Every structure is written in structure tokens, then in C-alpha cells.
């Protein structure tokens, strides 16, 4: 059986680090924690799980800290987590099985990263990440902010999932790091341009965000998933700025990178719904329900756009077109995914009343 080193970087994570380590302590063979300047009880909590605690002076560069943490590993494979990540019980068992059967010919193992859930516990947003890597390959982290692990070789896609239990961090941290780099004349990579634009958008700086998304896309060197996501975020910026034509162009721009994705079909559906072009809206919402979502896609996936949401919007469209039977059918399809959704239940009651009234009128006409 292979051995695993857990490598993490932390700072002031007293509310989450124990939960994280508890979920993995009986699976990994070594726990390495690199602390970048905690002033709370983080180190004290970590000491209950390991004595391999290392200090690293924070230099506004996540990759340097993560690469230092990887240097502390001594086992066959390196597993990395953030303090607000956990392995839920089913995934702990899957990880144990993976560890037992993992062959040393594998260079990296991807795991699903579950980011958000609906009220029934169903995953709504996820992506895949290279989460377990062979130590001797010496894979490196790249990027001061929104760092990524550059891997290659023989990659195994596993069925193990890491669950993110969000904990609020300093909302300005990443933006300030990028702003400092910009002021210091640091040349941004295409990836930096994209993530800086994301930070600007998250801080409602839509005009600047728009410019940096455009700069990112103009490099033509971005990862395909980032290119597609940038088109959606750029469309959001144009919508906030009231530039409807540019908003539409940004949505359509995503099609040059891949086949239409459900999210962008829904975006187009909503755009045409707002324009009262109902038949065009129906076309795009219907297409969103028909596109097969790839399970191997490493980018963000929000399953709402291929499940209940387009059916709910089709209900709205068909209702406005006066086609109430179709509206009811699609509302029922949406209800299969969200049986207690307030809008869906409202539609059900309303449409049943409309259809009953139509039936009563038809009976009177036949009489």
C-alpha cells in the first residue's frame, strides 16, 4: 500500500482546522502543517494531530508557501487540502480504498471538489482538482494568488470528493496582493489577468473588471475553461453597466471555445426573455436541458443550468405564450429536482387553477 503525506498551509484557522484534520487523520501517514503567521489557537489545535509544524514567513505569494509545504513531505504521495475542506464519511471510505489500490505508476489523482449544495444536500457546484500527487515528480505550484498545481504524466480520475465548508476570509486579501503587484510593475500572466478581473468584479468594480477580462481573452493563451467562464463574467459586467449589446456579444463569444454550455444557453434564454422574444428564449432554454454535461470537465459546473432552472424558465415562457399545458409540464420537471421550491410550488398552484378553469370552460362549450 502506498503512503500519503498531507501538506497544508494555514493562518488563523482555529475554527476549521480541527474539523479538517479529524476527517483525514486515520488515512494519511504524515501530516505537515505550514503556518504563515497565526495569532490564534491554530498551532495548539494542530499539535493534537502532528508535531510536524513549520513556520513560513508570509510574502504575499501562495505558491511559495504551498511549495514549501510540499518540500516537507516524505511519503509516496502528497495530499493537499485547505483548512475549510473535509472528507465526508463516504469519501473517507473511498479514499481508504483508493490508497489501498493506488499504483506507483500514477503521477496524479483528481478528486471532485464540492463547493455548494442545495437544501437537500445535492451538489450544485463542483469542479475537479489534481489533489493527490506523486512526491518524486516534484510538481510545483504556480501563481502568487489563485495558485494552481502544474501536473503531467499518468493521471487517474477518482470518485473521491473533497467537500468545501466555506469559512469567511479577508475579502480584500487577494485584491490587495494583485494591486500591489500591479503597482510594482509585475507582468501579469493570462491567468493572473483572469483572476484579477474576478477580484475586481467581486468588489463591484465592473468597469475595471471588464477591461481586464478583455485583456485576458485578447491574449488567446487562457485555459479553455477560464476563457468560457470569462465570457460569462464579462457578460455580467456589461449587464451591470447597462451595455446590453456587449452583454449579448460576450455570451455568444463563449461559443468559439466549445459547444454551447447549459449555463450560456440559460443566459441567452434569459436575455431573450427580457427582450420579450419568447420563442427565442424557449429555444435556448430547451437546448440547455438537452446538452449532456461531461463528468470529466475540470472546470466549474453548476448543475442548476442543466436541471431545474431551464425547466422553471420554460414554464415562465410557455405561460406568457398562453401554452399552459406545456408550462405545467416543465414546472413539474423542475419540481422533480426542487420539490419544495417556493416559485415552483406557486407555479403549480397557479397553473392548476388556470388549467381547471380552461377545462370548466371547455365543458360548458360542449354542453
From TrEMBL:
Domain Glycosyltransferase 2-like: 5-95
CDD domains noted in UniProt: Beta4Glucosyltransferase (cd02511)
Pfam families the UniProt entry points to: Glycos_transf_2
Protein name: Glycosyltransferase involved in cell wall biosynthesis
Organism field: Bacillus chungangensis
Amino acid at each position: 500500500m502506498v503512503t500519503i503525506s498531507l501538506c497544508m498551509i494555514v493562518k488563523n484557522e482555529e475554527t476549521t482546522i480541527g474539523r479538517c484534520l479529524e476527517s483525514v487523520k486515520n488515512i494519511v501517514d504524515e501530516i505537515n502543517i505550514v503556518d504563515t503567521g497565526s495569532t490564534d489557537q491554530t498551532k495548539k489545535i494542530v499539535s493534537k494531530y502532528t508535531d510536524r509544524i513549520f513556520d513560513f514567513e508570509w510574502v504575499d505569494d501562495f505558491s511559495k508557501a504551498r511549495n514549501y509545504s510540499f518540500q516537507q513531505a516524505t511519503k509516496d504521495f502528497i495530499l493537499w487540502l485547505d483548512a475549510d475542506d473535509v472528507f465526508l464519511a463516504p469519501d473517507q471510505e473511498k479514499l481508504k480504498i483508493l490508497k489501498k489500490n493506488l499504483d506507483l505508476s500514477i503521477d496524479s489523482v483528481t478528486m471532485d471538489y464540492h463547493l455548494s449544495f442545495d437544501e437537500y444536500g445535492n451538489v450544485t457546484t463542483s469542479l475537479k482538482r489534481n489533489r493527490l500527487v506523486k512526491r518524486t515528480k516534484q510538481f510545483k505550484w504556480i501563481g502568487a494568488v489563485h495558485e494552481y498545481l502544474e501536473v503531467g504524466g499518468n493521471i487517474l480520475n477518482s470518485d473521491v470528493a473533497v467537500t468545501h465548508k466555506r469559512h469567511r476570509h479577508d475579502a480584500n486579501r487577494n485584491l490587495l496582493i494583485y494591486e500591489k503587484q500591479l503597482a510594482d510593475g509585475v507582468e501579469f500572466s493570462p491567468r493572473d489577468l483572469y483572476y484579477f478581473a474576478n477580484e475586481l468584479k467581486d468588489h463591484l468594480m465592473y468597469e475595471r473588471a471588464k477591461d481586464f477580462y478583455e485583456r485576458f481573452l485578447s491574449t488567446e493563451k487562457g485555459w479553455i475553461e477560464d476563457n468560457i467562464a470569462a465570457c460569462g463574467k464579462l457578460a455580467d459586467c456589461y449587464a451591470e453597466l447597462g451595455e446590453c449589446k456587449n452583454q449579448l456579444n460576450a455570451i455568444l463569444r463563449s461559443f468559439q471555445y466549445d459547444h454551447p454550455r447549459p449555463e450560456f444557453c440559460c443566459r441567452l434564454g434569459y436575455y431573450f426573455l427580457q427582450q420579450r422574444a419568447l420563442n427565442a428564449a424557449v429555444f435556448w432554454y430547451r437546448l440547455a436541458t438537452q446538452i449532456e454535461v461531461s463528468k470529466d470537465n475540470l472546470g466549474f459546473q453548476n448543475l442548476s443550468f442543466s436541471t431545474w432552472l431551464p425547466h422553471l424558465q420554460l414554464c415562465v415562457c410557455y405561460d406568457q405564450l398562453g401554452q399552459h399545458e406545456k408550462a405545467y409540464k416543465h414546472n413539474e420537471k423542475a419540481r422533480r429536482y426542487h420539490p419544495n421550491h417556493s416559485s415552483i410550488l406557486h407555479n403549480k398552484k397557479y397553473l392548476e387553477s388556470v388549467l381547471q378553469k380552461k377545462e370548466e370552460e371547455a365543458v360548458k362549450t360542449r354542453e
